[in-house]
Amino acid sequence: MKAVLPAIARPLLEQHLPADIETAWFTSPDEAKAMIADADIAWVDMQPTEHVADAIRASGPALKWVSTIYAGLDAFPLDLLRSRGVTLTNGAGINAVAVAEYAVLGVLAAAKRFDEVVRAQDRCEWPKDAPGKIELADTTALIIGMGAIGRLIAARLQAFGVAVTGVTRSGRDNSLTPDAWRARLGEFDWVILAAPSTDDTRSMIGAGELDAMKRTAWLINIARGDMIDDDALLVALNERRIGGAFLDPTNPEPLPADHPLWHAPNCMITMHLSGRSQTKMFQRAAALFLDNLAAYRAGGAMKNVADLDAGY
To answer: Does 263 qualify as catalytic in the annotation?
Structure first.
């Protein structure tokens, strides 16, 4: 049995791997593509994520399991994996705490307009009044996507006194279903995107949704940039139709220096740093991989098995 694994995780994995596994440690996209040709197991995460898809497409018929640190699977060739019967396990939960904290950061920064506070400091100014006066208590939030991250966001916002409504595919726990949340958009002060990127969620926030939001509401995106129609968002921001936007991911990434979102009014961009704002990512990912490896070899149930039809 052969496994292709990232060299960056070698110190966390090597001493725990079974002796009968042939391990190839890649350090570059070219190495990953060459090593995966006859591999049974592959963890080939790379940036940009196009390299991941390229490596998987270079795999052979022996490949049975792909492991990834990513929770979102929009960069993966899911059709190819499905046709070959390959199991894909994702990293849902690995970055959940860090990303949820970033979502709360976005809400707080918007409520207190901390972006304006920082710019005042840069100018060595001492404002006579606070630029942001919203208290979170008694505000309302809509969280679109109540998975591992969405649930953590909800718990943290509820501790501030925010009334939270979630959106799930099933409508569990009194959440709204995908066909119901748009009619309720005007009720919320914070609209938070935490859903996986799929065909159903691409451009889910467009001109109609932005027009339906409160004029004071903020859009907080910690999911994927392609969930928002940027042209519609720019119109809403420039015409002050919504309170503002806090964007961790963008589309594309990196956002080009001449992209108008950089200078749009009431827009904060955090360069998709949310998942990286921690020190435990690879420790958690390595532990998950080793748990799943033991289950895979024993024919047991693996954690975080993705639904290749649903795309997450």
So the answer is: no
Q: Are residues 201 and 102 in the same domain?
A: yes
Say what the pLDDT of residue 59 is.
98
Length of the chain: 312
Which residue is catalytic, options 156, 202, 253, 259?
A: 253
221 contact partners, CB below 8 Å, separation of at least 6: 192, 193, 227, 228, 245, 246, 247, 248, 249
Active site residue 209: no
Domain count, the chain: 2
In a shared domain, residues 118 and 262: yes
pLDDT of residue 264: 98
Residue 82 domain boundaries: 2-94+278-298
Reported as a single tens digit per residue, the pLDDT across 205-249 is 999 999 999 999 999 999 999 999 999 999 999 999 999 999 999
Q: Is residue 229 part of a domain?
A: yes
Q: For 192, list phi and psi in degrees, rounded to 5.
A: -115, 125
- What is the share, in percent, of the chain residues with pLDDT greater than 90? 95
Dihedral sign, Cα of residue 45, residue 51, residue 53, residue 59: negative
Give tens-digit pLDDT for 96-147.
Answer: 999 999 999 999 999 999 999 999 999 999 999 999 999 999 999 999 999 9
Quick one: pLDDT at residue 252? 95
Residue 194 lies in a domain: yes
- 282 lies in a domain? yes
Question: Which residue in 272, 276, 284, 297 is the catalytic one?
Answer: 272
Q: How far apart are CA 49 and CA 52, in angstroms?
A: 5
Residue with tokens 């997450």: 312
Which one of 125, 224, 239, 259 is the catalytic residue? 224
224 is catalytic: yes
